[in-house]
């Protein structure tokens, strides 16, 4: 055999599984279609958010959390409805969900700290939900940002793999694309595929697919951890669910091109059951990167509640479709309203004061202060009056940003960004003035203004995230900013069905000997640990939890 275990995919889930295996002295072949510069995969580009429950960071910020509240939120968000017995699609997903929440409330933080991963002191309040106690969303802030962002999360596992390679426990097969899982007498015993031409492109850049040879490797088991479908719009459209309406004609891409979904079909051909393929996680606050790395490179705006969100026709989105509240609910609203289905965009309208405090951008490269663990720069960027340098760069250079001193000028510039002038300046001014009249009191009937007041009751939001309520048309807070928002493809919520040991299951629910799946390939565990909705800060953690399960169960069972 060429190794004890073959890991397909050099991203976070694959490297976590590798770390568990080499800790027990097993030999691992890590196979990936990209070059060595991409070690760490998609996680490297992330903001580094982690979902934790009742953490010291939460308690220091005055947040009262519990496993009971977190499990209530998780179930209300997942809405698992395919629970018809052992062979159903959600049986294992729900078990993974419960196990994950218990881990997030227990061992997870210490496990990460043992790897050297630390968190910033402020806990973010992501995905605030649909307004129901038993519905979707986080009842309290749980989004812990890792020092180093995604690079800080993936770094310890990259280091473990590189050190193990020095000891010859790990061998990397970069530029090796798996095209087939080898099945021998019903067990997966290896991989076959194509050797791709050398390509020295920088991290994330789309690479050559020229084939220069073939290869075959054998092992006792294979772990498939090759990511999801976010970079492949063709597959996204194929499985786009009817409940989300018509897919946009044009989408932008929040992941590198190598997140192509190929291994899902290849794993299915080896006998694995794919479930919940219609569940996916895309954002509607996407903007085109003014300095792109991969094709149609998109960045998500992480906005606090103050900006006014308008549809393509200039009408305010109703609650709970407010900034930072209900991601897929907003996507569903924008794609299923008959009069909006023809348009692929919506708008933020806000003040420069709001942009300075409330706009964050997803991704390690958009947060150099946290990525570089520079506390002085972090304090300067996050507490200063103006926008952070990355946000200001988008305001200055981004194709989706316009600024103006008056609402009439702003709307004219917004109309210049669309094929036809859809916005009426007088109507946009009317709805903004109506919202502005609600600002004068600490109470209001307007849900979007209520969201601001509620957010500022949380210390973390008041200090560093949410501006004091003010009128959008107040010139003291100008100039005005308009942002054209697009659908950004990102995560796969379904995939290979696995048991709690990350063993891939066949159509009858039985484990396939020698085959494991982890990370996004497995719907982050069980083929759908998030159900229909994610609570944010749960994707990196899902990769770690499922990769850890795969590595530990293999390490215990290998002969």
Automatic annotation (TrEMBL):
Q: Which organism is it from?
A: Metallococcus carri
Q: What Gene3D superfamilies would the database entry show?
A: FAD/NAD(P)-binding domain
One Pfam family from the record = FAD_binding_2
Name assigned to this protein: FAD-binding dehydrogenase
Query: Which GO-annotated molecular functions does the record name?
Result: oxidoreductase activity, acting on the CH-CH group of donors
**What taxonomic lineage is listed for the species of origin?**
Bacteria, Bacillati, Actinomycetota, Actinomycetes, Micrococcales
Annotated keywords? Flavoprotein, Oxidoreductase
Instruction: Report if keyword Membrane is assigned.
Output: no
Q: Which domain of life is it from?
A: Bacteria
Q: Does this UniProt record's set of keywords contain Disulfide bond?
A: no
Query: Residues in domain FAD-dependent oxidoreductase 2 FAD-binding?
Result: 4-540
